[in-house]
């Protein structure tokens, strides 16, 4: 466009009006002028030029007719004046007629008129006595006639030549004037066009001074046309770099130096006269005349809206590209047209591999009808929102996704494509399933814990009374063996309650700081003895592991259960391997996110000790994996006990997490993560209390809601020399304590009671007497009790069920430490 403008306006910028109003007024005035066309043809007629063959014939007839008529009129006129002049100047009137014919008709009609005049003059005036116009009587007559003819022809020829020359000059002048008018009018039309377009246009002369400016240029620069005319373009058109604010080279400078078309650099701002900063695009072109650059024309436009649209588009593109969700643009037939970084992360394909391919390449074969239905709904204008389904990763793995697919419409409302937004919900679904599993296990754990608690209370009565009876029976009594078996059965029942508590996550009883690798080596003989000889046990244990806080008996049960489970997964009669691996693991936020979707248990960033038990067995499908931690679940024969359910309870009781990785024919891997400690492992053996003398004195208050426990404890402590006060709940215990506070030396307090809990009872006892020693009794483990009663000044803890010597030993130990 800029080049065309420069070429059109090259010849006469200075002669043109400089305002839109002047341009339009001039064009209206020119449009009202009538058109005309003068006859400048060979016939010499100075009237209208014939424009058709018929008109040309008519003009010729008129010219020759004029020659004949002028000759007749000249003859008549000579006859009229004959009496006055006689025979003198016989051809005078004819000469005048010939002059007229030459002027009117040109040389050829004049020749005809000369011949007719010579004949008529000879006949009537030179030799009137002859009978023919061409017969002359004397030599003088012949000379006269010949002289007339020659003279007339010479004059006619010269006059016709003169008039033809004048005609050509006039034609050239008129043609030149018409061409100039046409050029000017065309130029004026282009000026009006430039005044009407949306771009700003400024023209300069060879010195770079403004000679033309349209209305748009005036509005953008802030300069009135009259004020800008004659000023340097640098004063009117000031531009700077949008990013740096530095002054930018004016394109017209290069145009004038190099004579070439020059575009404006990106990010250019026009500083208007009133201080506005307007982003513009422009270009300059030279105005040439005869190969010389005589000026320049600058065309520019306000690109504020475009820059804003570009920024918005770039911002939206950045949002799409930075989104964690997969955002895919596709045509209405499903061909992929755009592919963001989130799609690459989710599906594993780079954009280059997917653009132009069909979206069905991501769809599992069994879900192709589903994808076809989605395309049909899109074609009908429907939107698919939060549709949960599965798609294929590049490696072939299935991904759980939530799809939102919406039709894309053009300005006319026609559907031209669709936006496909996919969010990876694989981890979310796994976490939800794990949460469901955890909640189910917690519910069962609460039930198991409650049963274990009540069972422990019963065992206190059984084991305590049986052990008390043993002390009263002689060593040779036949009943002694039976009572010893009762005590042994009670202890085995207590072990069952420990498994139930382990399942409930409350099963840590004796907590030590251990090196897991060293401990596993110590129990390897027990583990080896528990598995078939066809199964090889392999160890890959890391040395110098950080310590973990654990109940060794619980850890032994956990390892034994996992190894036995792995060994039983190997088909009977076939050889296989169970491998135990330990290592130190450092989990950061990313690793926690990776593990938490598959692991059961709470994970936080930090250092962990990993226990991994892997087997080469038959593996499990997803349905089996979902139920392996259910109580009494097994793929073998029924009635196997808690097994993996207890494993999960032990892990939860140690604030760890467990993860299972298995597939049919690929074996199974159990990974257990235990929080690591900052201290070294402690292998110091616990000191044993000297219990040779368990008798004592003083008053003991026993607060327990179970009658069988109160009865057994009362008889047992009285047997050892103590005075015993009983209370069936916390309120009654406080009342008894108020009445006998001066005599009570120790309180045995049950942790779980109705009416008032053990925690509240302890707090209120401390108000009555801040230093009274309190021994907590519970079917739950010591670690759980100490956590709940931390900072409340417990003197000791005794685990239910217990024997009477154990109770007497605990009371004596507490009193000895306090004394």
Number of strands: 25
Largest sheet: 7 strands, antiparallel
- Report the radius of gyration as a whole number of Å: 61 Å
Structural class: alpha+beta
Regions with little confidence, pLDDT below 50 for 5+ residues: 11-49, 637-642, 684-692
Overall mean confidence score, pLDDT: 79
Helix content: 40-55%
- The number of distinct helices, counting runs of at least 4 residues, comes to 26
Shape, per Cα inertia axes: rod-shaped
C-alpha termini separation: 108 Å
Q: Strand percentage, roughly?
A: 15-25%
Summarize it.
The chain is α+β, with helices and mostly antiparallel strands. Helices cover 48% and strands 20% of the residues. The strands form five sheets. Strands 1, 2, 3, 4, 5, 6 and 7 form a seven-stranded antiparallel sheet that branches. It has a six-stranded mixed sheet with strand order 14-16-18-20-19-17. A five-stranded antiparallel sheet has the order 9-8-12-11-10, with helices on both faces.
Architecture blueprint of SSEs:
Elements: H1 2-8, H2 20-31, H3 53-85, H4 92-105, H5 107-126, H6 139-196, E1 200-205, E2 210-213, H7 215-221, H8 225-228, H9 233-236, E3 238-241, H10 251-258, E4 262-263, E5 268-271, E6 277-289, E7 292-302, H11 304-322, E8 326-331, E9 336-339, H12 341-347, H13 351-354, H14 368-379, E10 384-392, E11 398-409, E12 415-424, H15 426-472, H16 479-504, E13 511-514, H17 516-529, E14 535-541, E15 548-551, H18 552-568, E16 576-587, H19 589-596, E17 599-600, E18 606-615, H20 622-625, H21 644-653, E19 657-662, E20 668-675, E21 699-703, H22 707-719, E22 723-727, H23 730-740, E23 744-750, H24 758-768, E24 774-778, H25 782-788, E25 796-799, H26 804-818
Parallel strand pairs: 14-16, 21-22, 21-23, 23-24, 24-25
Antiparallel strand pairs: 1-2, 1-7, 3-5, 4-6, 5-6, 6-7, 8-9, 8-12, 10-11, 11-12, 13-15, 16-18, 17-19, 18-20, 19-20
Helix pairs in contact: 2-6, 3-4, 3-5, 4-5, 4-6, 5-6, 15-16, 15-22, 16-21, 17-18, 18-21, 22-26, 23-24
């Amino acid at each position: 466009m800029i080049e065309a403008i420069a070429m059109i306006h090259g010849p006469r910028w200075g002669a043109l009006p400089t305002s839109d109003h002047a341009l339009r007024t001039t064009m209206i005035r020119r449009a009202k002028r009538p058109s005309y066309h003068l006859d400048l043809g060979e016939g010499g007629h100075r009237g209208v030029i014939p424009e058709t063959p018929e008109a040309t014939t008519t003009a010729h007839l008129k010219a020759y007719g004029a020659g004949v008529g002028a000759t007749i009129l000249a003859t008549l006129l000579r006859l009229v004046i004959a009496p006055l002049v006689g025979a003198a100047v016989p051809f005078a009137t004819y000469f005048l007629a010939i002059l007229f014919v030459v002027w009117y008709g040109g040389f050829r009609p004049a020749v005809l008129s000369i011949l007719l005049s010579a004949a008529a003059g000879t006949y009537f005036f030179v030799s009137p006595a002859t009978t023919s116009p061409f017969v002359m009587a004397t030599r003088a007559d012949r000379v006269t006639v010949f002289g007339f003819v020659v003279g007339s022809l010479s004059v006619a020829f010269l006059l016709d030549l003169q008039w033809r020359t004048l005609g050509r000059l006039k034609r050239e002048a008129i043609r030149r004037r018409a061409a100039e008018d046409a050029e000017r009018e065309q130029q004026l039309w282009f000026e009006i066009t430039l005044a009407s377009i949306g771009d700003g246009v400024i023209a300069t002369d060879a010195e770079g001074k403004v000679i033309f400016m349209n209305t748009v240029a005036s509005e953008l620069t802030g300069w009135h046309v009259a004020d800008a005319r004659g000023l340097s373009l640098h004063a009117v058109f000031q531009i700077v770099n949008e990013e740096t604010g530095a002054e930018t080279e004016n394109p017209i400078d290069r145009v004038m130096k190099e004579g070439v078309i020059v575009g404006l650099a990106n990010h250019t701002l026009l500083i208007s006269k009133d201080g506005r900063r307007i982003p513009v695009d422009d270009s300059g072109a030279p105005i040439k005349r005869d190969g010389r650059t005589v000026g320049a024309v600058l065309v520019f436009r306000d690109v504020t809206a475009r820059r804003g649209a570009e920024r918005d588009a770039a911002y939206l593109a950045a949002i799409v590209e930075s989104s964690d969700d997969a955002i895919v643009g596709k045509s209405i037939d499903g061909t992929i047209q755009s592919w963001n970084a989130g799609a690459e992360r989710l599906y594993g394909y780079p954009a280059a591999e997917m653009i132009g391919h069909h979206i069905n390449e991501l769809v599992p074969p069994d879900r192709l009808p589903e994808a076809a239905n989605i395309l049909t709904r899109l074609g009908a204008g429907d939107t698919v929102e939060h549709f949960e389904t599965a798609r294929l990763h590049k490696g072939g793995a299935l991904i759980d996704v939530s799809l939102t697919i919406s039709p894309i419409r053009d300005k006319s409302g026609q559907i031209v494509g669709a936006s496909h937004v996919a969010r990876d919900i694989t981890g979310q679904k796994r976490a939800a399933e794990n949460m469901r599993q955890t909640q189910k296990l917690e519910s069962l754990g609460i039930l198991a814990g409650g049963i274990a608690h009540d069972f422990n209370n019963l065992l206190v009565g059984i084991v305590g009374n049986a052990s008390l009876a043993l002390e009263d029976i002689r060593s040779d009594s036949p009943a002694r063996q039976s009572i010893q078996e009762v005590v042994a059965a009670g202890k085995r029942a207590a072990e069952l309650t420990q498994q139930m508590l382990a399942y409930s996550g409350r099963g840590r009883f004796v907590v030590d700081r251990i090196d897991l690798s060293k401990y596993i080596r110590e129990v390897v003989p027990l583990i080896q003895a528990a598995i078939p000889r066809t199964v090889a046990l392999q160890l890959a244990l890391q040395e110098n592991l950080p310590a973990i806080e654990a109940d060794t008996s619980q850890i032994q049960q956990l390892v034994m259960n996992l190894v036995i489970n792995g060994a039983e997964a190997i088909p009977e009669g076939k050889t296989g391997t169970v491998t135990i691996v330990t290592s130190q693991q450092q989990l950061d936020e990313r690793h926690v996110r990776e593990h938490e979707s598959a692991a059961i248990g709470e994970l936080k960033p930090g250092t962990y000790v990993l226990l991994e038990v892997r087997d080469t067995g038959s593996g499990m499908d997803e349905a089996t994996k979902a139920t392996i931690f259910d109580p009494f679940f097994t793929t073998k024969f029924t009635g196997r006990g808690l097994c993996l359910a207890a494993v999960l309870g032990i892990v939860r009781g140690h604030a760890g997490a467990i993860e299972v990785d298995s597939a049919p024919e690929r074996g199974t891997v159990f990974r257990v993560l235990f929080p690591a400690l900052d201290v070294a492992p402690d292998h110091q053996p616990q000191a044993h209390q000297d219990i040779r003398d368990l008798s004592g004195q003083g008053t003991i208050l026993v607060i327990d809601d179970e009658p069988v426990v109160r009865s057994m404890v009362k008889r047992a402590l009285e047997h050892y020399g103590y005075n015993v006060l009983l209370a069936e709940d916390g309120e009654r215990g406080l009342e008894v304590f108020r009445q006998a506070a001066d005599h009570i030396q120790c309180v045995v307090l049950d942790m779980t009671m109705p009416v008032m809990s053990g925690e509240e009872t302890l707090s209120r006892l401390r108000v009555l007497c801040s230093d009274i020693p309190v021994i907590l009794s519970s079917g739950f483990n010591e670690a759980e009790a100490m956590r709940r009663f931390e900072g409340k000044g417990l003197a000791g803890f005794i685990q239910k069920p217990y024997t009477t010597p154990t109770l007497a030993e605990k009371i004596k130990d507490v009193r000895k430490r306090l004394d």
